[in-house]
Design brief:
- The chain has two domains: about 5-255 and about 470-485, 3-Layer(aba) Sandwich (Rossmann fold); about 280-465, 3-Layer(aba) Sandwich (Rossmann fold).
- About 35% of the residues lie in helices and about 20% in strands.
- It contains 19 helices and 20 strands.
- Strands 3-4-5-2-1-8-9-13-14 form a nine-stranded mixed beta sheet, with helices on both faces.
- A hairpin with a 2-residue loop joins strand 3 (about 60-70) and strand 4.
- Helix 12 packs across helix 17.
- It starts with 5 loop residues before the first strand and ends with a helix.
Length: about 500
């Protein structure tokens, strides 16, 4: 029997404690899957005001721990979750740094002291492990907020306690690089002579914490095999493709999983009627109720409904959709869309809705129950992203028997397979030409008219397994390889 590995899972956010994006879903679900597979896991994250006191033990596990920050030390209290059902989670409490309305910024932009905030957090992680005598085999770091940890382990924390520890750095999105002025290097606790150079944390005269993670971690991965290849190219590497190519031997892609306890049409409490592959009557009712809820013409029940749940920006391909909107409406289909973002896109969508009364329904803001109902009640689900590290909504759509139409990028390319002669689960296009998107939607609508084939493509999608158990096993495999290298250095 293989040994249990000790994993310190470090993230700036995790469900159910705090969430700003998909990272929180991963940090909530993956540790659970690892624990169920027999690993000894601890999650560690900052204590934000969103974390209710009822979730925590009343007294801190460490009352006052001195954490270095630049030339000084600041005390932090460390709390732990009281639930025995979930993976143990530790929280770094420092009110002036983490008790704010947003995790990383507010409507005015990023917080001015994010370097100090997450440097403090990274040092705290290593101090806590030592203080609690939790000797991790793997420290699994996520995105720029934790990117300093692999560098610290090669500098000020290069000590006996961590001799058996390997680091894995997971990139969820290359767009967020944690870039700060170079003159602030002393804040990090790294010595310039050792770390501030082209092969280190220096990035065009600045510091990049994302680059720190990429350069100094024992291995780097991202959240889909295709995205792992794409980020080594100029178009997707966003200035870091050279560094990533240098690390190609240690770079891999593992798909994110789906929590089927939450995303499952058989037990989803947000949708109007539960359903399964064996009995799809409930899906028809979900469609009927969605049409009513979004103010669409009831006659659209017999037509295909195209759904979309997305941030409204260019990365998500909303400009492509707007370009073809009139032609899409001419295809005799309805459109339901939930999202918020670029005010110009919001205005353009509102105008399109006015121009096509009864055919377009729009929900704004973050509305999770409505997202579930759109995914359940639509026939076709649209994700025309310019880049998509993994994407989860296409996997949700497949489970709900809603056929995805996607651009062949990142995780979309790894999970959606073009339908042909009974094989495949969706439709995809390669370019960034609006007409290619329209052509792809037309293919889906043509197939919709053939009820036998449509049932087949729905069944293919609903049978897919993107569970965290599968992804978790791939991470364990990677952890074991890292541990093996540590025991037997190359």
């Amino acid at each position: 029997m293989e040994s249990t590995l000790k994993i310190l899972f470090v993230s700036s956010e995790a469900v159910p404690y705090a969430k700003s994006g998909g990272l929180a879903d991963v940090a909530g679900s993956l540790p659970q899957a690892l624990t169920e597979a027999g690993m000894d896991v601890r999650i560690i994250m900052p204590l934000y005001p969103s974390i209710r006191k009822v979730m925590l033990d009343k007294t801190p596990v460490i009352e006052k721990l001195a954490i270095p920050l630049g030339d000084t030390e600041l005390p932090a209290s460390i709390y732990m979750t009281r639930s025995t059902k979930r993976v143990p989670a530790l929280f770094v409490h420092r009110e002036d740094l983490f008790f704010r309305p947003g995790l990383y910024g507010n409507s005015a932009g990023d917080y001015y002291d994010n370097l100090e905030r997450f440097t403090f957090f990274c040092h705290a992680v290593l101090r806590i492990a030592n203080e609690l005598d939790f000797r991790p085999d793997i420290i699994h770091c996520h995105d720029w907020q934790t990117g300093l940890i692999p560098a610290l382990l090669r500098g000020p924390y290069n000590e006996q306690f961590f001799k058996g520890t390997s680091t894995l750095f997971t990139i969820h999105n290359m767009g967020y690089q944690g870039v700060f002025p170079g003159h602030k290097l002393n804040v990090t606790g790294l010595k310039g002579v050792d770390f501030y150079h082209q092969e280190g944390v220096e990035y065009w005269g600045n510091i990049s914490l994302l680059k720190s993670g990429i350069v100094y971690a024992d291995a780097v991965n991202t959240v889909s095999p295709t995205y792992a290849e794409e980020i080594c190219m100029r178009e997707f590497g966003l200035g870091m493709e050279g560094i990533l190519n240098n690390r190609k031997d240690s770079l891999s892609g593992i798909l994110n999983g789906v929590d089927y306890e939450i995303w499952n049409p058989e037990k989803d409490t947000h949708i109007h009627k539960n359903y399964s592959l064996k009995n799809l009557i409930g899906k028809n009712l979900c469609k009927k109720e969605l049409i009513k809820e979004m103010g669409l013409d009831p006659s659209l029940f017999e037509k295909p409904i195209v759904g979309m749940v997305s941030r409204l920006d260019k990365q998500k391909g909303l400009d492509l959709l707007l370009e073809i909107m009139d032609k899409l409406m001419a295809l005799d289909a309805g459109l339901v869309l939930l999202g918020s973002g670029d005010p110009r896109i919001e205005t353009a969508l509102a105008e399109a809705k006015k121009g096509h009364p009864g055919k377009i329904g729009i929900g704004t803001g973050f509305n999770d129950p409505l997202a579930h109902r759109i995914i359940a009640g639509s026939d076709i689900f649209l994700i025309p992203s310019r880049y998509e590290p993994c994407g989860l909504t296409q996997m949700y759509a497949l489970k709900y028997g809603t056929v995805p139409v996607v651009r062949a990028t990142g995780g979309l390319n790894d999970t959606v397979f073009s339908y042909e002669k009974g094989i495949g689960n969706g439709f995809k296009f390669k370019g960034t030409n609006p007409e290619e998107l329209l052509s792809c939607i037309k293919q889906a609508i043509e197939l919709y008219k053939n009820k036998t084939e449509w049932k087949r493509i729905i069944a293919n999608g609903m049978k897919e397994d993107f569970s965290w158990k599968k992804s978790g096993n791939k991470y364990i495999e990677l952890y074991r390889k890292l541990k093996e290298k540590k025991v037997r250095p190359a």
